[in-house]
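Tutorial handout. Part one gives the primary structure; part two gives the three-dimensional structure as tokens.
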Amino acid sequence: MVALAAMNGLLKTLTARGLLQDATAGLAERLEQGPITGYVGFDPTADSLHVGNLVPVMGAAWLQRAGHTPIILVGGGTGMVGDPSGKRDERPILPLDQIDRNAEAIRRQLAHFLAFDTAKNAARLRNNADWLRGLPLMDFLRETGKHLTLGFMLQKESVRSRMETGISYTEFSYMAIQAYDFWHLFRTEGSELQFGGSDQWGNITAGIELIGKREGRQAYGLVFPLVTNASGTKFGKSEAGNVWLDSARTSPYQFYQFWINTDDRDVERYLKLFTFLPVEKIGAALAEHARDPGKRIAQRLLAKDVTTRVHGVAEAEQAIETSQALFEGRGVTVAPGTGELVLTGHAPTVKVSRTGLRDLSIVELLVASGLAKSKADARRGIQGRGFYLNDEPIEATDLQLADEQLQGPPEERFVILRKGKKNYVRLVLEP
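Part two.
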């Protein structure tokens, strides 16, 4: 009875945490009958997941915690085609060896989020390259294509939204290929459920349609919301682009800074979406935060929890220490041989007015900070990727700092300029 209660609580949990946008008819009743196996897919378009992928990853984790079995499907086969969902233009088709390398890297990352070695409902990793790359075209058209009508596919937003700008037959066929995945996993793994972002609704329902026609059985779908921030822009981007889970792409310090800079209007939602903290603990943290927003208690809780989960305790603690040291004006350098960050007293602080921030180029700011001896020295350093802004290489000599690049509380906003590995300057915006 306890286990059944937990299973019935899955949709309630997802709803309470803002993770449930929609589900197909009958899913709640099916969950009441006992454990279900469900899958979510990730196409290997890069060799790392980014924070935007964390919503379906967290969904899979909650599924497992409720007693069900998640399957993580790495799209080594579908990655050869590319999903048109949510895209204005056709994705570039990657070489097969690159797809395979990316798929393997994603496999390793996902192993940090789910339990793959539990006795009962262990998560499973599958790669659709195993069954798609050798699939004969004629068999696919006879056994799958005939069940998905053109009218059915044109009704789906992922296809309809691309009709004006153009969609190739390759991308148009993606829906049928993903439907085949669902049917294959239904037959071989007993997967009755597919879940993913809300942009996957059309692909998911196509799989349900195919299973119903080929097997005469019922399957189910569940989608999560596509997350935006309070300003209305897509979640998961920093001024440098995607925030990656791979520390080689986004350092643990940068990763921590992304979360610590969360807008007050977003922090409650992000705590519910991206952590496993009980709702009661989140509520208590928010109440404490409201009493003194300047301390950013809720953001610190969020940043520490997610950074620890992704990068481990040691890296999270180092990111926290580095962030605090730079905020307090203490210097940080890199220990020879170990690569560890070491506190070194006080980092120089340079103050700049909002007018200066708007009028001065990054070249002039590097000279003003003392990190560059002259404008020519600053330009040479930028061209050689020797200067950094908030731990990201500065790549353009005409870069102008913007408000969204500033860190810290409202009363003392700043950025970190760095030369090489050892020299830091805090550039503080005057009130």
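Part three, for discussion. Confidence is low (pLDDT under 50) at residues 1-7, 86-90, 333-346. The longest strand covers residues 191-197.
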